[in-house]
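Q: Here's a chain of 275 amino acids. Please give me its 3D structure as C-alpha cells.
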Amino acid sequence: MKNVKLVICDIDGTLFDWTNRKLSPKTKEIITQLKQKGILFALASGRSVSELKPYAKEWGFDEQFDFLMGQNGAELYFPKEDKKYEYFLLKKEWIKEIIDFMEPFETNPFCFYHDEGMLCKVHDEMIDRSIATSKRKPIVAKDMSDFWSIENAKMMFRMKEELTPVVEKYLEEHPFEFYKGFKTQSTLIEFMDKRISKGYGLQQLCQLTNIPLEEVVAYGDTTNDNEMLQVAGLGVCLLNGSDDTKAIADEITKSVCTEDGFANHVEERIFPLIN
C-alpha cells in the first residue's frame, strides 16, 4: 500500500469492547491525528445511521466523522451534504419467510421500527442492551405479522451464545436465494438482502467520492466485516476477531480492542504511509 486517503472502522470489537462502549484516550488521539493529517475517517456499523450520528459528539470530537455507514452497508450518510443513501431493503414477504425459518430456534426477533421504535417479540434484558445503544423505544409486537408490516434493511435475532454456532451451521446448509443470515455478535444473527454488505457499502462510498479502493484501510473483527476488509486496499482484523475474519484479513493487529489494537496498528503501520 503506497497511499492512504480513508480509514474506515467497525465499532464493537474493533474500536472498543461492546460492553464498555467508550473510546480509550489513545484511540481518540489517533483518530484526531488522522484527521489532522488529512486522512478521512468513517464508521461502518450494523447500527442505523441515526444511531451513529451522535457518537462523534458523545466521544468528545468537535466535528462529525467524514462518513457514516449504517445497517451493514444498507445506509450511507455524508454529513457535510446532510445526504443519506439507502440500498436494498428486505421485502415484506422475505421478512415473513425469515421469521418462519428461525421459528424452530429459541430466539428473540427484533428490528428497527419506523423512526424511533425497536420492535421485538419479547422485551428482555438483551433487548434493553440494544435499546440502550440505539436510543430507540421498545415496542412489543402484538402479532408476529407486525414484523413484516413494513420493508426493513434487516431482521435481527438474539439468542444464547451456545446457540449461535448451531444457527450459523444451519444457515450454511440452507442458503437463501434473495437474502442471507450472518453473525455480528456472539449472541446475534442478522438477515439482510444478499446484495448488501459493508463491502458493498464501501464500494458505493468510493464511487460517490472518487476515492480509490486501494487507498482505503478497513478495520473489523467479525463476519459482517469480511467483505469490507476484502475490497479495501488493506483489510485489518483485530487480534480478538473471529477466525473467519482473521483468515481473510491482510493483517492482524498485535493487541486486542481493549488494549488499543486499532490505535497501535494505525500508529505503527498507517502513519508511516502518510506523506
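Q: Can you summarize the key feature?
A: The mean pLDDT is 94.
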